[in-house]
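Task: fold both queries, return tokens.
Query 1:
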Amino acid sequence: MGSETYEAARKNIKLDGSQLRIILTRNPGRYSANAVPGKLEFSNESPQQLVKQLENKGFKQMLLLGGGTINALFLKESLVDELYLTLEPRIFGKGKTLVREGEFEVLLELMNIKRLNQSGTLLLKYKILS
């Protein structure tokens, strides 16, 4: 996840289990007091470098949590295989974007739709085609 997502969610992040959480930030040293090796790490690597590092450590899957900047970085480099979107039955006049503006286009194929509650919240699963 990106540092803005981390800052918004840090109170709710539990460092139990075997999950490794990596926060992408321009200044990893700023978070050195928060780092827990193997659980919560901070990096300024490029998306490609990060994915390669995780592959070398034996990781086969990665979950990308982030805002428009982080999402755009990984999508632009074709490092995303699937996209999960939660659609809430509510329209906002403002908010965060899914991806930051950029020179790229991503084609999707709908794989699955799951209704999550009586209000009509939907979980949409897409395959990335390009």
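Query 1 returned. Query 2:
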Amino acid sequence: MDDATPTPDAVQAVVHRGVPLAAAWGIEVLQAAGGTATCRLPWQEALLRPGGTVSGPALMGLADVAMWAALLGLTGGRDESLTTSLTIHFLRRLPPGAVMAEARVLKRGRIIVGEVLIHGEGSSETAAHVTTSWAAVTPRA
């Protein structure tokens, strides 16, 4: 049985310790419970690509972190699962500004499958669709 659902701040602390790049980018965990998570990537000029759009690597990193946050919300904040695949479909350009990622676990077992939708803050238009799978790893004591 999983432990109690951690607060978003607790999940964010785990994410920032486990993925220092997430801390450097300032990724915020706004919600993480019940196999879903919402994360926010604040605006940073360093995350742009030529043409003034948010870069693909930034969106992929945000998606990966959001999926881990969804797993952490399911496991009481203790999860060491590993990404085995991440496929991203870029649907439209994201202009400069904060970016939101909404992750959800679709299947949980030895292999975990999830989906992440990415959009600009304040917009409901999906800018990127991500599918991802993870190898479940039990945390060390």
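Both queries returned. Flag for query 2: The two ends are 16 Å apart (CA to CA).
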